[in-house]
């Protein structure tokens, strides 16, 4: 019986049909990409030992931390604590970077071949190599040099979000041009995992760097121990209204309800960004609805509620709401109501300051805000009444004991020819870069096997499923995940494929 439970045959058929439709576009996109970007795979541009090292680390388990742990650990940043922090990052960051490189190498629909995606991948590989070649950290002198390396990596990755957005926007334009698939669950799933991982990487690096900065009142690194949600919300409101005034020449009022003296430990830059996005969306909706009316628009209401487990911020507007059919789209990375995306060249790498880049026009505001809330155990929910308005509920975990929600990743695929060891080794190295990819969440085992086989076939240059035979070679538990080795043989042609993946079985 499938480990994720039974899935109706009709659903499996629909999945297969959708994948078949996508296959034609994948082939066209891959072919087009190969004519533009030659030798773009890692194995084509990197030494094999580096590629093996990357994918070897991608098989390793990531280690999560909590807000409470970072508070306790950084409360007294003595020499020993700083060295221990540097030693942890020296070991952990290559694993996290490798997981992301493996995914960037294996994106469907030809996305991996986009120049913007290749640029991001190369940033991650460069940082991986620098961390791997840095010597063992033994004393404070080593720790200081390592911190300088972290500063360099932090600056290098400052514009990852908008550069990735350009690659996805290019894919979206191609899909529209070819009248192909408009809903890309694999892309959205990847983006969620990628950006969630990026949040974690930047928090870990930023926290360590901040411990070297001059002490700030009520701060432990990036974390403010007495963060006032009312005060941060007011600052975010002022920034959002300033943009609204510049765009429309007017801005609705925003009324704040809550105790300004209430405070709890949180990262102010994260909170500012989330509230800013919610208020900005409400201001735009209100201004669009009441722009031609003679009456004054009613004020937007922001309420801060202090609970035992959560601090909840509610943003309510009367901007007309969102149609029920459009609600799922607000969480995708291909949806936006803004007119024009920002240009990457206009962004200052130093402007991010620990928080995310504002991406008007790319449709990233809500999904990334939800990831920032979920990173520390919170959430973001949107409830809308079409014809009236929208309520946004931002839940923040005030206990701080939630572990990082580290994303899942599929990591390696090998392919070659039986009985031809030399060619098999060469082909296998190339296919590590081409890779295979499972589908996560709500899919049964059959679909996972099928999806992996598709990628192995493409990697090996073979199409068609008829002559392939599948078997599970091994499965072993690693923490809360399973490492599964799946092997394929092709009758008559001597082709073989092997996919090694790490993923959680829960729910699929």
Descriptive labels:
508 residues; alpha+beta; 4-stranded antiparallel β-sheet; 17% strand; disordered C terminus
Helix segment tally: 14
Number of strands: 12
Largest sheet: 5 strands, mixed
Portion in helices? 40-55%
Main β-sheet, spatial strand arrangement: 3-5-6-8-7
Task: Outline the structure in words.
Strands 3-5-6-8-7 form a five-stranded mixed β-sheet. Strand 7 and strand 8 (389-397) form a beta hairpin. It has helices spanning 9-36, 42-45, 48-58, 67-74, 79-105, 115-133, 140-156, 160-177, 185-210, 229-248, 268-290, 365-375, 421-434, 445-460, and strands spanning 219-220, 223-227, 254-257, 264-266, 300-306, 310-317, 379-385, 389-397, 409-417, 468-478, 481-490, 495-503. The protein is built from 14 helices and twelve strands. It is globular. By secondary structure, it is α+β, with helices and mostly antiparallel strands.
